[in-house]
Design goal:
The chain is α/β, with parallel strands linked by helices. The protein folds into two domains: 157 residues, Quinone Oxidoreductase, Chain A, domain 1 (Alpha-Beta Complex), CATH 3.90.180; 135 residues, NAD(P)-binding Rossmann-like Domain (Rossmann fold, 3-Layer(aba) Sandwich). It is 27% helix and 27% strand. It contains ten helices and 15 strands. It comes from Streptomyces antimycoticus. InterPro entries: ADH-like_N, ER, GroES-like_sf, NAD(P)-bd_dom_sf. Keywords: NADP, Oxidoreductase. Pfam families: ADH_N (PF08240), ADH_zinc_N_2 (PF13602).
Length: 319
């Protein structure tokens, strides 16, 4: 099979096409003929050597989301999925088999769900990892309906899913946006849109005097800068481990704030939640956004586009 990966870490130029042995589904597993794999920030981190791959042998295959056609079911698999079904899955590149940048991926059946009806492979591929990240952030904060949530990076894919899922959960949502993205963020729909910028905490406090009940920091601004906008007893969910940007343990204790680092592999085998996201996409609760599709052989270009910033939707590689 054809796959895209790397043997040494570096910039986008290290990505190239490999011819690898075709994998087959074993007990408890299914195989997807991949038609679409998204390009996510985590893929660029892997490519640049910032993710510990442990004992994984090269070539290293990035890719955390795939959509395609189910074409093998392993021995003894109990599933309602059938050969030929359009499916989607979250894939962990730190496993020995690598990630989703390949014509075929073999996964535990618990990681695979039907794709949203009528979505097409490219749009379906944007949902598994990004949607589950958003769902996990909200679940970890655990806000009751009627509470107020702030979302940074709301124009991005994860931030946009957070806004839409929060609204479906009955939360009041304050979201940030650059001027060019304000219409998009209002359409999600956020209840209040505040300007992006270094004074984001002040803008949130202007909108919600006393502070919000929780914040999901999809823009990676840093919990230390956002903490003043959270009311005492509230919480913050961050999408990546922080260092100097993290709110101090002393302030967490003094203000009874909860602090959650979101680790999406916690949901990698949660088919029920992934299937719920699928149904929400079919009902229009979630908007599946593709910025651009490119042939898999142009993966280096896709990485350059993502790292240049400004994409509104996921760049998708097609196999």
């Amino acid at each position: 099979m054809q796959a895209v990966g790397l043997t040494s870490f570096g910039g986008p130029e290290v990505l190239r096409t490999f011819s690898l042995a075709e994998p087959h589904a074993g007990p408890g597993e299914v195989r997807i003929r991949v038609h679409a794999a998204t390009v996510n920030p985590g893929d660029t981190l892997l490519r640049s050597g910032m993710i510990d791959l442990g004992a994984v042998e090269p070539p290293y295959l990035p890719g955390m989301e795939a959509a395609g056609v189910l074409d093998e079911i392993g021995e003894g698999v109990d599933t309602d999925l059938r050969l030929g079904d359009h499916v989607m899955a979250m894939v962990m590149p730190i496993r020995p088999e690598g990630g989703a940048y390949a014509e075929y991926v073999v996964l535990p059946v618990s990681s695979v769900a039907p794709a949203p009806a009528g979505a097409g492979h490219a749009r379906a591929a944007t949902l598994p990892m990004n949607g589950l990240t958003a769902r996990l952030a909200l679940d970890r904060l655990g806000l009751a309906p009627g509470r107020t949530l702030a979302v940074t990076g709301a124009a991005g894919v994860v931030g946009g899913y957070v806004v839409q899922l929060a609204k479906a959960d009955g939360l009041h949502v304050v979201a940030d946006a650059a001027p060019a993205d304000e219409e998009l963020v209002r359409s999600l729909p956020a209840d209040v849109v505040v300007p992006r910028g270094d004074d984001i905490a002040d803008r949130i406090l202007d909108a919600v005097p006393g502070g919000v009940d929780g914040i999901v920091d999809a823009a990676l601004i840093g919990s230390a800068r956002l903490a003043p906008a959270i009311g005492d007893g509230g919480g913050v969910a961050v999408l990546r481990d922080e260092d100097s940007r993290a709110v101090s343990p002393a302030e967490l204790r003094r203000r009874s704030l909860s602090y959650r680092v979101i680790y999406v592999p916690d949901y990698v085998s949660d088919r029920a939640r992934l299937d719920t996201l699928r149904r929400q996409a079919e009902r229009g609760v979630l908007t599946l956004r593709v910025a651009r599709t490119l042939p898999a052989a142009r993966a280096a270009e896709a990485h350059r586009l993502l790292e240049a910033g400004g994409t509104r939707g996921r760049i998708v590689l097609e196999f």
